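Please predict the structure of the following assembly.
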Amino acid sequence: MKREDLTEKILDIKREKGWTWKSIAEAIGGHSPVLITAALLGQMKLTKAQATEAAKLFELSLGEERMLNEVPYRGSFQAPPTDPLIYRFYELVMVYGTTWKELIQEEFGDGIMSAIDFDFEMERLPDPRGDRVKMTMSGKFLPYKYYGATGNSPAYGYKED
Amino acid sequence: MKREDLTEKILDIKREKGWTWKSIAEAIGGHSPVLITAALLGQMKLTKAQATEAAKLFELSLGEERMLNEVPYRGSFQAPPTDPLIYRFYELVMVYGTTWKELIQEEFGDGIMSAIDFDFEMERLPDPRGDRVKMTMSGKFLPYKYYGATGNSPAYGYKED
Amino acid sequence: MKREDLTEKILDIKREKGWTWKSIAEAIGGHSPVLITAALLGQMKLTKAQATEAAKLFELSLGEERMLNEVPYRGSFQAPPTDPLIYRFYELVMVYGTTWKELIQEEFGDGIMSAIDFDFEMERLPDPRGDRVKMTMSGKFLPYKYYGATGNSPAYGYKED
Amino acid sequence: MKREDLTEKILDIKREKGWTWKSIAEAIGGHSPVLITAALLGQMKLTKAQATEAAKLFELSLGEERMLNEVPYRGSFQAPPTDPLIYRFYELVMVYGTTWKELIQEEFGDGIMSAIDFDFEMERLPDPRGDRVKMTMSGKFLPYKYYGATGNSPAYGYKED
Amino acid sequence: MKREDLTEKILDIKREKGWTWKSIAEAIGGHSPVLITAALLGQMKLTKAQATEAAKLFELSLGEERMLNEVPYRGSFQAPPTDPLIYRFYELVMVYGTTWKELIQEEFGDGIMSAIDFDFEMERLPDPRGDRVKMTMSGKFLPYKYYGATGNSPAYGYKED
Amino acid sequence: MKREDLTEKILDIKREKGWTWKSIAEAIGGHSPVLITAALLGQMKLTKAQATEAAKLFELSLGEERMLNEVPYRGSFQAPPTDPLIYRFYELVMVYGTTWKELIQEEFGDGIMSAIDFDFEMERLPDPRGDRVKMTMSGKFLPYKYYGATGNSPAYGYKED
Amino acid sequence: MKREDLTEKILDIKREKGWTWKSIAEAIGGHSPVLITAALLGQMKLTKAQATEAAKLFELSLGEERMLNEVPYRGSFQAPPTDPLIYRFYELVMVYGTTWKELIQEEFGDGIMSAIDFDFEMERLPDPRGDRVKMTMSGKFLPYKYYGATGNSPAYGYKED
Amino acid sequence: MKREDLTEKILDIKREKGWTWKSIAEAIGGHSPVLITAALLGQMKLTKAQATEAAKLFELSLGEERMLNEVPYRGSFQAPPTDPLIYRFYELVMVYGTTWKELIQEEFGDGIMSAIDFDFEMERLPDPRGDRVKMTMSGKFLPYKYYGATGNSPAYGYKED
Amino acid sequence: MKREDLTEKILDIKREKGWTWKSIAEAIGGHSPVLITAALLGQMKLTKAQATEAAKLFELSLGEERMLNEVPYRGSFQAPPTDPLIYRFYELVMVYGTTWKELIQEEFGDGIMSAIDFDFEMERLPDPRGDRVKMTMSGKFLPYKYYGATGNSPAYGYKED
Amino acid sequence: MKREDLTEKILDIKREKGWTWKSIAEAIGGHSPVLITAALLGQMKLTKAQATEAAKLFELSLGEERMLNEVPYRGSFQAPPTDPLIYRFYELVMVYGTTWKELIQEEFGDGIMSAIDFDFEMERLPDPRGDRVKMTMSGKFLPYKYYGATGNSPAYGYKED
């Protein structure tokens, strides 16, 4: 069994039942629809309890239930993405990536915004000129470490300048 | 003169003067540092007034000033980006792209979040476990249009189901 | 079930029945053959009503009917396209893309022609030297937005110069 | 001298003079701004007369003038294009390419729309909901030829069925 | 049913029957073996009459017969081709492509040799030093068109200089 | 000095002098314009005598003359070619490559048509429907060799079946 | 039936029988194990007699036997190869390719070493520091031909300088 | 000034002076040669103090000194690397990457080993059979975060199962 | 049977049994979990004895057992890897690869660290700031050989300077 | 100074002097022309003594001399190579790579042929049917190591089965 086959099966059931991702997320236990959707699409894992709920909902086998609790091999496209909706996000990285790098580093020093210790929320922003998709995300700033420093003092620590 | 040569010149001056992007944005007129930085990095244009301010600040020639007011050929990398900070954003699209697509479409119908009619803000989120980079963005939802409809009524309009 | 399997099934039925895309579009309700064809090829969605018509015509299951009403993952090739007919359009973008960019921006300012809020029509242009394929398209011009502007006045709006 | 160096020089002069593509096209002799722009961007050739006019306008050397009358090596990007405006056209080919193929072939038989014997016009379409970019193009339909037919009759000709 | 499955089936039958492409071409009606072979390999279409002959010969279903009469999605490799025999042709384009461009343009002006209105013949050239493969091809020269010309006279026509 | 710089220099002189490839080929000694053009474009070598003639014609230095007598690093594009004229040849390989392979092998057995021991001629074919580009080429057929055969008799030779 | 399916079947039988390539090559008739192995892996053809022997050994059907006698579509990877053993050969070409070119051309003139008229042998070279893999290969030198020469004398021949 | 130009200049001076990376690292202040080397090669930044030392050593300008204190755009190759030494590391990731993923996740749960909060040491391991390169590295394990959890309790925290 | 099918089967059984890689490695005979895991994932081979143990554990057929004893075609991704955990290792090569090259060569001379004669160990490093993944690896240094030296003395040996 | 600039300079001098690679190799000290050529083309290093000889011969600066003694960043093309002579070697790997893998592993067990501890010789093989290029190479076989074995006995050693 491959993860994409399980994803296809889940999408088939969702379609036949006429469920939405929100209703599925609620049925599984009120967690973030983003996380639940990502897991059912094969990009995140569910916890054991969530996987059990999901298995009940979709009437999955034990093997399928456990697969939902496994960490998947992530990555949903060969660059660049061809779907217009997904491409727009990719384009934002292409147009603003260097700017984000400059401003994050100016504010935080050398490091990255974590894509792992990462929060995400999406909401509809009503707007008379046309509603907007609002995305709020935050990732822990992770500073590059000065490994191998041979001095005495805060050898291990990191004090950038 | 190529846009990247102008960018390189601006970065040289910024380095020699010891300026920050924020101070540059203020000097140019208090606009969003994101936009100003993106323009000076060759990914956005400055307005005429901003370009004049920038030209004063960086002591640019008339041709260079006008180039800052030109729309650039955008796109800062061949996919995928190699820089770790920029790559993390790319990775987010790879891991969450399909999820965003599913959830945006469930909420809004068929269409995209515009990367053109688009707001962006970045801020530091203090956190005892390590400060976080917070990014808030909103893009206008653009529904796919039903062109070529031959019926009478709301032929041009779009009423998805 | 994958969308391409449904497409393959629909093409099989079309072939066996000897139908044309035009006759199919009419049978489904007189909508643009472009849109109907694109949807049946897995690049657009049908409305619920259209999907019901299509399901009747092709004798599809409920799951298949609903899949036609789902937004597909779009994008029909890995660049560049190998089919000569499709390649010619790609070539036009390669040869004229920069020109279109220059002229659209000269006329409209910084922004893009939407590929989402987009009309399209194709017709045969009789010509004694050989008939021509005529394509008429229009897309809404979408100006880049000046987000993050900190001034008072038309802070949100966009007044390019 | 490379064609891209000549293009860069022409863009520098255009910027310093503050000219538009339309004014340039008029100065060169009232021809289609699309063709003139494409040629000055290095994707088409000018006729001898046009090249002479262009050389006068831009004060070019004889070698540069003749280069404008040469057929360039065409193609302005490595796929896919990164600039958002140009990408949107590319996206249209990706989303509608198979549809165009099906409908053109249904109407005309086996063949292509020429990208060489090709007309193009762009105009602004005023629209209260936001002006639109209108593009009208027509290309001669070129049928695939049945070469090598060994029968008597219309051996060379092409009568598709 | 996919075109490559039909191709695979035809190759299986050809192998089991011990047929040659020439004998197949004759059986189907004496047309160019190049065209017939290309069609059976999924790169060209057969006419209705040829498809009927082919269906008889290979004992195909009605759907399969009609598929042979359909225009295929052409293109037999992702560049570059790996098979040595096919690669040699690719190499010729790589080594002589620029030369062909220069000489064709010197002789005909700006335009291309059509790959659509195109003849092709292959024969064995006996040679005491080792027989040779002789290929003769001719394609209609298609001149680039000066669309959008605003003058009066031969506005539509094309008179290059 | 790089070969492409020499090519650029030669093209500059050709342009300024207003020469054609044919006149250059004649001036260099009446050899095939294809070979001479390919060599001057950096894809073939000239013989010493030809290089001397070319050096006189273009007033080249001794180093440049000798470079024309050197075998170049061949290959004029990263696949696929973007120029429409060159692309058409590439397309022919993509559409007919498998056919050529099948028919050459049916006629000659396992092997290739040499792209090294290779003749080429191009001519204009007058045609009332539009003149044609005629290309005649022949390459020696090279059979794959049965190396390592351990039998006695025609161990080294090749007798295919 | 695809060639890779036949290869997979042959590998399955070889594994179950516990055969080696050498024993297979002997059973098929004492030919070079390199050629026999390459053919059974789908990169070369067997002669009819060899195919018959192979069919007996592996208990193949007539269609499978004949497929072994067909010339395959060659090429076993998309560049670059990922397997370390195969990659080392690729690396040798990357590191020494330009050197081989220079030295072969210095010795033989303009041309190539044939990969078609090509011998190959592999043996174990005992060595107290670790046994070595010895590969001996020879390919016929093929000189580039001066086609299209218009002089009288050895017009067809090739006398490089 | 581009970072690679500065790297080239530093390499030129190092070569002319006959310095080693170790001696440079000591001269700059006894820090890890890995970090110092990486920074001078344009992949890491130096602290201000280190940059000052480096500037003294290499007699750099103020702009160059400050550039060494800037975070570079990282990434030293387009995949895959061609240099054999660097390729071996890449190969290790290709061969063991999935294994590392399985074992790290089995031990730590869902997350990654940080390439940012990362230690590295290299040493020579004497061995009678040939000395070995020993590399010791450790990266902080970063667990994927359950954002958007709507429950009460440890809503923000992460307790995987 | 393909190796990836066997891998999929083994993963299915592991999931259903609820086994860990460590428990599997112990059951197979106490060998390195890294090696056993890599082999079961299709990147390494098991010895005959290990394969027999593995076959008992997973109840495999004889053919499957023998396949585990076969050397696989290695390489687990098309570059670059999309999974975040695996990508971090790839990123380390991209950021530190040139540094490793410089320092290994400074210490050992011209050569590589073997990825074949290679040790590897992974362990958890407890750390109050977050546990760390520690990886220790060593590879034999392999010096480039001076083949073809024609002098007398240590002609075959290698004494770098 | 970049290595490719030094290579270009060396090629310029070689051309002007009319030297061959063999005469250069002799002048530098009678070493293998393969190694000397590879080093002067920027793919290998010269020893100090050889670099001194080369510097005398080519009248190089001290920095250039030392650069010849540095290990270069190897790799002479982006795959696949476009030059026909070099491509033939690449093709051999593509056609025979899997065969070589099978036969080397059958003879030696799991491992690779080293591309580092590697001998190479090239010679002209006179042949009445056309002289041949003979290449003899041998590389040390490197067995994959069983690291991490926890048993007592030949824990570190490698005894494959």
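Helices of chain G lie at 3-17, 21-28, 33-40, 48-58, 62-68, 84-108. Residues 118 and 130 of chain G are 29 Å apart (CA to CA).
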